[in-house]
Amino acid sequence: GLPPRFHARVSPEAAPAPEVLGWNRDLALELGLGSMGDDETELARIFSGSLPLPGSQPISMAYAGHQFGHFVPQLGDGRAVLLGELVTETGRRFDLQLKGSGHTPFSRGGDGKSWLGPVLREYILSEAMHHLGVPTTRALAAVATGETVYRETALPGAVFTRVAASHLRVGTFEFFAARRDVEALGMLADYAIDRHYPEATEEQAPYAGLFRHVMARQAELVAHWMAIGFIHGVMNTDNTSIPGETIDYGPAAYMDEFRFDKVFSSIDRQGRYAFANQPRMAQWNLAQLGDTLLMLDVDKAELEAVLSEFPALYEARYLALMALKLGLGQAEEGDADLVSQWLSYLNDNELDYTLSFRELAKRTDATDDARFGSFETAWRQRLSRQGRSPTEISSLMNARNPLFIPRNNRVEQAISDAVAGDLTVFEELNRVLAKPFTEQPEFAHYAEAPEAHERVSRTFCGT
Ligand code: AMP
Ligand code: MG
Q1: How far is residue 315's CA from residue 338's CA, in Å, rounded to a whole number?
Q2: Is 462 exposed, middle or buried (0-12, 13-18, 19+ CB in 10 A)?
Q3: What DSSP letter does each residue of 303-348 carry, written as one string?
Q4: Residue 154, Cβ density class (10 Å: 0-12 exposed, 13-18 middle, ≥19 buried)
Q5: What is the DSSP letter of 260?
Q6: Directed axis angle between helix 170-178 and helix 182-196, to 10°?
Q7: Ligand 1 center–CA 106 separation, angstroms
Q8: Would you say the pTM of this structure is higher than 0.90?
Q9: Are 44 and 23 in contact (CB under 8 A)?
Q10: Which ligand lies nearest the alpha carbon of 119?
């Protein structure tokens, strides 16, 4: 672990009437916590923070961050406590964190609590992300506290248990850089290398190596987001993970109808984190990480040279993913134009992003271009040069294009039903989204795009 100046000791607050809403059995098994599920009363107490996890010394971590471009020197875990680390049988190390278990030294004016909405939202969205094959923190548990939390109205409180490769953020580096604490920054960089990028120790300049590895993971991550139509919504540096996972699902959303400039977050008034801006914002966040490493005598010109490779690195990964979604196998010269043509068609016609790919997969051997216009002509010509049968291409496409995503309207339904005591939609959604590429006829309604009047256009932060 890291020494005391990186965190503060905390005690989670006890919940008056804890009750399990969600328990991720498969993940618990992977983590070697399978047997905990046998005693639901104890489970509820542990994962609401009411009963200490044996052997755990809970802490809240310090971090800073650029929020919407503005530097805030102290943020930190204001409503989260790290219970500790777990090492699986296969030797993988994870952080176990409670979110919403009460006041911490970093809470500033906040209560450190969470209501049920953001807890169930992060549960559904992060597990869906995992099953879509995208790097992400995971959901182990959601527990209602039995306590009332006051926001604009009185709401039921809940605690979320998150599993992450680690909770190191770009903002963790910024915290110590802002304090000119070079010693701590060095320890942090060494810790990050040791925990996530041990291969960097072999390099001539390990800190520049660390930077290159973090950058590669961010390029990979954002390429995945762009390919599945995901909008993070708050890509601040405190929400940018050093191991490269999707982290801090606040107003995050999966797009229904495609728009390049789509924004959901109620607080993103300028559209800084609009869908199409995400790669550029990731690069901006990496530049902030680079700035902190300058304090460790990393060569500025070298960092700049590494960072300038970001767009090409990102583009290559994105194109490879999109080519697979379009049934194209290896990307070729001209495919980037074909992808643009497709996206422009979806954008101009406000078509559903997810379902349009599934629809396209049915048209590999169509003889008319009635559905997707001149794009379709160019696309089928490109397919015909591959030497694969239309049926084979269709099934390859269906394996890369989900049928089920967490539709905003369904997620909101899951939350409002849960507030009223009914967990059916929450449970069904989790079940369906565990197999997002597979037809599940009994749950076909969860694949449907929302009707115009069902569309959710605004999402809110976790607080
Ligand atoms: P987030 O929106 O999760 O990225 O959080 C931004 C910052 O606000 C972090 O430092 C959080 O810990 C803090 N924060 C969010 N909600 C609360 C809350 N209810 N009480 C205290 N701090 C909070
Ligand atoms: Mg955050």
Answers
A1: 14
A2: buried
A3: HHHHHTTHHHHHHHHHHHHHHHHTT-SS--TTHHHHHHHHHHHHHH
A4: exposed
A5: T
A6: 160
A7: 9
A8: yes
A9: no
A10: 1
* Nearest Cα residue to 18 out of 127, 120, 156: 156
Q: Tokens representing 432? A: 């369906």
Sequence-ordered list of residues with C-beta below 8 angstroms from that of 69, at least 6 positions apart, any chain: 272
Question: In degrees rounded to 5, what are phi and psi of residue 245?
Answer: -95, 155
The per-residue pLDDT for 330 is 85
The torsion angles phi and psi of 95, rounded to 5 degrees, stand at -90, 145
Cα of 31 from ligand 2 centre, angstroms: 24
> Phi and psi dihedrals of 242, rounded to 5?
-65, -40
Looking at residue 203, what DSSP letter applies? S
Q: Can you give the length of the chain in residues?
A: 463
pLDDT, averaged in runs of 10, over the chain (463 residues): 92 97 97 94 97 94 98 97 95 97 96 97 98 98 98 96 98 98 98 98 96 98 98 98 98 97 96 98 98 97 98 98 95 94 98 98 95 96 94 98 98 98 98 98 98 92 71
Residue ID of nearest Cα to ligand 1 atom 10:
75
Q: Rounded to whole angstroms, how far apart are CA atoms 427 and 2?
A: 38
CB atoms inside a 10 Å sphere around CB 440: 15
Nearest to 140 by CA among 225, 21, 51: 21
Q: In angstroms, what CA-CA distances link 304 with 175, 192, 287?
A: 22, 21, 8
- Choosing from 66, 68, 74, 79 the residue with most ligand 1 atoms within 8 A of its CB, the one to mutate for a pocket test is 79
The rounded distance, in Å, linking the Cα atoms of 132 and 321 is: 13
Indicate the DSSP class of residue 454.
G
| Nearest ligand 1 atom, CA 104 | 21
- Other Cβ atoms less than 10 A from the Cβ of 42: the count is 14
SS3 254: strand
Contact status, residue 105 vs residue 60, Cβ threshold 8 Å = yes
For residue 157, report the phi and psi dihedrals to the nearest 5 degrees.
Answer: -80, 155
Rg over alpha carbons for the chain, rounded to the nearest Å, is 22
Residue 134 and residue 317: Cα distance in Å, rounded? 13
**Amino acid making up residue 412:** E
In this structure, what are the phi and psi dihedrals at residue 368, rounded to the nearest 5 degrees?
-125, 165
Among all residues, which ones are annotated catalytic?
238
Farthest-apart Cα atoms in the chain, separation: 67
Cα end-to-end distance, the chain, whole Å: 29
